[in-house]
User: What shape does this take?
Amino acid sequence: MGSYNNITSDNEITASFDIDVYQVIFKDDNGNIIKQEAVKHGSAATPPTDPVKVGYTFDGWSVDFSNVVSDLEVISTYKQKSYTVIFKNEDGTIIDTQTVLHGENAVLPNEPTKVGYTFKSWVGTYTKVVESGEVVASYEINIYEVIFKDYNDDILKQEWVEHGKGATPPQDPEREGYKFDGWSVDFYWIEDDLEVIATCILKEYDLPTEISKTTPIKITLAHAMGSANIALMKTYADSFIAKMKAEGYNNITVEIPTGAGNYDTLKNNTINQINNNEMPNLVQGYPDHIAEYLNMNAVLNLNPYINHEKWG
Assistant: This one.
């Protein structure tokens, strides 16, 4: 400073300066200007209020602006928010705990199990998470089919029963020559599909106290034996007839016809005779053949006769 025109004597001239001023621009992470400020060289800029971004926490500014020496662009920085998502079983047991970033999805754990129930769904927010929370497993109780059947596989009743509950049986079925003896399996605690079969036993009949000595009585044995065994059986039959005659029963005969040849033929012949109501008194056969005769109501229980004090 000082005059330096038309100098007529010694003079002192001093230099003067204007301080540099810089533009400091504060922007968000999308490039939007939040604040613009003129700052003198070496001075500090004044930041705006911390900007807000949904799902994020403000984490400061990208560069230092406490000693500005040039034009400066300052960008806001953020940290994505995270939340805790807890997966629980129906009883409150923790299955999994996850940290999930804002707006993202939790990873579903394996579906839990519960005896007697089927997993249905997760109840709670686990997609596009924006806050901490719990997700709870839900279930549907299992329902089972219970079928009550008669001895011949006829369906008596069909019922749907929840796990752990009991089925209600139908009325006791009737079968000629038999009495109902209960059901094949327990059905008071159902935990799976179940088939329940009616069981029955042969009725015990009142035995006669006397046998007629005049009415003809013929005993027929159907069999598949060869000649040697037929001869032996006839010996037993002759001995039986002789004993009965000695007691005055001259009206009893025993017929042992020629054998059927094989057991399958014997079974088929017997079934035909049963259907024609011409069945023999005694039949030789295998247990599975007898089971078929039982289903045709053609078998009588001989135990009362065998154990009878007079006729046994």
